[in-house]
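Here is the promised in-class demo. Please do not try to memorize the tokens; focus on the logic of going from shape to residues.
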């Protein structure tokens, strides 16, 4: 057979290939969902990224894992739908457009609500949603014809339907409540939108004089400025320090107002002095104490965190300036008992990172506990499975202690709450359609100005994106969705709320499985941040190494419940893997053509041992891939495929069959060609969900005209390929070849030098197998003379390798200069000892250990262990050489 030039370039030029194939897939509409009757369905809804967002490593991981499942199930012949879309991101988007207006010297309030909303839509059309194109760059095979936006017309209808239904069911109400307020964004925040950061602060001890003027009660607080709104002091009823209070009233310092001392079990006796100042207007827990004891509520700040008229002499001061002045004034009056350094959790706005201020406000709430009950049962009863399972306890803990959900936001961009107040009679009207007049006949109606929390519309995503509240074919075919893949940090923001809304409005779970992936960190395990300078831009990485290399790296490290450590070195390593596949494909294409017969036309039992073996190993890999994907063990999927391709197919099989491909035995040669093509086809199909671009390019270079590999059938287990006896025989040959190769490496025998090998093998069956495949062993281990015997002494001057009861000897005479090698090893050891001494000097230096970053110390320890291992190996080889020369 004359070798032909393969239809693949010498190197994999991913830049052109990726662009070309993605355009081709879009043109051929290969991503579009089908709703064939009788076929099983598989569906995913994308966690909608913010319309303001750009692709980061978290998105890259999340969407790679989704795409793997989507491509896998598509190849399994299912009706597959992957719904893409973006979230309107109320606060973030409004901030972007407001900043844009500021550069133009325009204030949104002067512009007016309608004109402002128009500007936001214009921004969205021109600049928003660039992340969608970046997801395409990642290779995501979403059905882009079904792209949704949380503010599009269909989703707006769903949002209004849900709001009015919950309101009519008594599950949405408007009331006074303490909410998290951002003085910068001027909006309410849910508990989940507040990020609590450990902050070094101070604990102020303040003396509250008893009303009689005899003595005082000391309270402790981190926010002395709020004392201006105190309406009581609370102590625990079981606190022995306060069992015999001389009286139950104190004077509020600086305000000179008499307030009561109340007993409440909420008070933490261990905190501060055990006496708690109660400010119902500026603390949620104090608000609850106030309700229990019927205390008045005083609000002392405006919406910008500036002290108002209720603050008396402190009116007009910023809250933090007020704090400083109050501390000075208390000290002057002798009422400051002391100040302690104190670290505590301070709540920041998740958008602008301004410290939030609890405020009393009239807001819209969802009475969430009735909805939570069904959502708890869905997970508890196993209808929804959370992976890793350890997150279930966190889910239950939060759901059992859930508080009503504040859903109103004081911004303009978002779903405006569909509620109107009649100016004539005060009637509140909540409606799916805009009302013309009130039941009293008045048409003087004022609409609620607040918008809904962004997560309210996102909570409906699994069914609203499929056309609900209409009864659509998509809902019949694809709801409930199959799996949700998302980050663990939005388990409560989004996942729990989707479960609540799905079980309530669809009377069915929104998805069957939830896979929560971990964080992507840098190679040292550090969280990525701009301040640390360790942020990895996936777009730049794809430009440098190719999309497939990034996707495979992400998959290979996506172990359940374990943070992913990633670096350019690791991505480069998998870039080499992509090149390995490319080169193996080029080799294969040199030996197969349109005349190569399909595997179905040959007798498996008549194949050579290497051909039977590779089919059996491929079969096992196929089974493992199906199993690991079913369990969402993505890293195992990548590992099984990598091991099979690199080590079994490339390192062993291709080397074994090279003589057969040039054999004069026509049947052997043609059968080998068939198996070679079959296994490469299997590899390309197995790999395609993870590395779509390189596999598509190789697939189209294979013989015979081919359509996209994406629509080929995913490999399934073939019982006829399984052969344990063949695998055992090949494993034996690997031991022999590997043993000789180890000796060659350890003894630093020249790569081209031929050696003599003697094998002691007491097992006659194994001995027969070794003899039968002697030509393969000698070719792959570069042996010019091989002797197989039942037993015998080690020849003088021979290096040995032992595996169970098999002994391999390679005489060294004429292969190496023992004295020279011993001298070389001694010099090498001397050099390594110097490096180890330097390293250990650092590790015994207390100053280095205490001052150096943890990752630097860990690296130094790792280096020390590596030096020790090298020295041990040198000593082992030295001993072996000394024994050989004695």
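The designed amino acids, position by position:
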């Amino acid at each position: 057979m004359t070798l032909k030039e393969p239809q693949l370039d010498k190197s994999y030029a991913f830049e052109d290939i990726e662009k070309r194939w993605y355009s081709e897939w879009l043109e051929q509409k290969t991503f579009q969902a089908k709703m064939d009757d009788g076929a099983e369905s598989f569906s995913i809804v994308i966690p909608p990224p913010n319309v303001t967002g750009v692709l980061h490593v978290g998105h890259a991981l999340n969407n790679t894992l989704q795409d793997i499942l989507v491509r896998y199930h598509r190849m399994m012949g299912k009706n597959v739908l992957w719904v893409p879309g973006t979230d309107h991101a109320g606060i973030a988007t409004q901030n972007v457009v407001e900043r844009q207006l500021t550069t133009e010297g325009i204030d949104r309030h002067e512009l007016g609500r309608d004109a402002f909303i128009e500007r936001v839509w214009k921004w969205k059309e021109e600049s928003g949603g660039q992340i969608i194109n970046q997801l395409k760059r990642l290779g995501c095979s979403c059905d882009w014809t079904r792209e949704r936006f949380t503010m599009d017309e269909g989703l707006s209808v769903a949002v209004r339907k849900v709001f009015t239904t919950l309101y009519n069911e008594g599950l949405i109400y408007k009331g006074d409540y303490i909410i998290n307020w951002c003085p910068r964004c001027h909006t309410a925040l849910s508990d989940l939108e507040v990020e609590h950061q450990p902050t070094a602060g101070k604990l102020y001890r303040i003396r509250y004089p008893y009303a009689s003027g005899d003595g005082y009660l000391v309270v402790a607080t981190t926010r002395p400025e709020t004392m201006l709104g105190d309406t009581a002091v609370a102590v625990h009823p079981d606190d022995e320090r306060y069992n015999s209070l001389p009286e139950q009233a104190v004077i509020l310092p600086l305000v000179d107002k008499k307030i009561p001392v109340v007993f409440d079990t909420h008070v933490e006796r261990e905190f501060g002095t055990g006496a708690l100042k109660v400010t119902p207007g500026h603390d949620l827990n104090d608000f609850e104490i106030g309700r229990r004891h019927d205390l008045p509520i005083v609000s002392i700040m405006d919406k910008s965190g500036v002290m108002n008229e209720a603050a008396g002499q402190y009116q007009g001061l910023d809250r933090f300036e007020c704090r400083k002045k109050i501390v000075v004034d208390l000290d002057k009056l002798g009422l400051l008992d002391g100040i302690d350094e104190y670290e505590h959790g301070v709540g920041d706005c998740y958008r602008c990172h301004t410290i939030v201020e609890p405020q009393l406000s009239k807001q819209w709430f969802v009475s969430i506990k009735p909805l939570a009950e069904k959502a708890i049962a869905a997970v508890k009863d196993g209808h929804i499975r959370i992976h890793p399972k350890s997150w279930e306890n966190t889910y239950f803990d939060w759901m059992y202690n859930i508080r009503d959900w504040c859903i109103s936001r004081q911004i303009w961009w978002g779903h405006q709450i569909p509620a109107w107040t009649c100016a004539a009679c005060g009637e509140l009207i909540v409606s799916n359609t805009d009302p013309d007049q009130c039941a009293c006949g008045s048409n003087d109606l004022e609409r609620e100005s607040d918008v809904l929390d962004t997560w309210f519309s996102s909570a409906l995503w699994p069914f609203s994106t499929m056309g609900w509240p209409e009864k659509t074919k998509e809902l019949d075919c694809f709801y409930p969705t199959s799996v949700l893949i998302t980050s663990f940090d939005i388990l409560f923001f989004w996942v729990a709320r989707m479960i609540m809304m799905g079980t309530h409005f669809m009377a069915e779970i929104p998805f069957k499985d939830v896979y929560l992936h971990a964080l992507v960190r840098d190679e040292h395990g550090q969280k990525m941040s701009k301040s640390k300078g360790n942020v990895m831009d996936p777009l730049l990485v794809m430009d440098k190494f190719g999309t497939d290399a990034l996707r495979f790296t992400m998959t290979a490290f996506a172990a359940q419940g374990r943070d992913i450590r990633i670096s350019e070195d690791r991505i480069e390593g998998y870039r080499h893997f992509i090149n390995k596949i490319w080169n193996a494909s080029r080799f294969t294409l040199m030996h197969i053509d349109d005349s190569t017969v399909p595997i179905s036309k040959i007798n498996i039992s008549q194949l050579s041992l290497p051909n039977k073996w590779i089919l059996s190993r491929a079969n096992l890999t196929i089974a493992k891939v199906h199993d690991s994907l079913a369990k969402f063990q993505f890293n195992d999927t990548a590992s099984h495929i990598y091991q099979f391709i690199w080590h079994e197919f490339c390192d062993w099989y291709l080397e074994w069959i090279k003589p057969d491909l040039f054999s004069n035995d026509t049947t052997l040669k043609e059968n080998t060609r068939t198996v070679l093509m079959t296994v490469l086809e299997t590899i390309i199909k197995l790999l395609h969900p993870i590395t779509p671009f390189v596999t598509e390019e190789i697939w189209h270079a294979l013989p015979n005209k081919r359509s996209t590999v994406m629509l080929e059938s995913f490999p399934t287990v073939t019982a006829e390929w399984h052969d344990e006896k063949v695998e055992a025989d090949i494993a034996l040959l690997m031991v022999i070849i590997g043993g000789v190769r180890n000796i060659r490496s350890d003894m630093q025998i020249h790569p081209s030098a031929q050696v003599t090998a003697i094998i002691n093998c007491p097992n006659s069956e194994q001995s027969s197998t070794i003899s039968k495949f002697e030509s393969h062993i000698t070719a792959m281990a570069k042996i010019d003379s091989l002797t197989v015997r039942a037993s015998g002494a080690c020849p003088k001057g021979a290096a040995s390798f032992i595996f169970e009861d098999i002994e391999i000897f390679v005489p060294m005479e004429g292969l190496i200069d023992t004295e020279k090698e011993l001298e070389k090893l001694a010099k090498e050891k001397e050099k390594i000892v110097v490096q180890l001494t330097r390293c250990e000097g650092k590790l015994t230096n207390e100053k280095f250990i205490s001052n150096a970053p943890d990752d630097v110390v860990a690296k130094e320890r790792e280096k020390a262990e590596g030096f020790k291992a090298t020295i041990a190996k040198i000593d082992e080889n030295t001993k072996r050489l000394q024994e050989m020369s004695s």
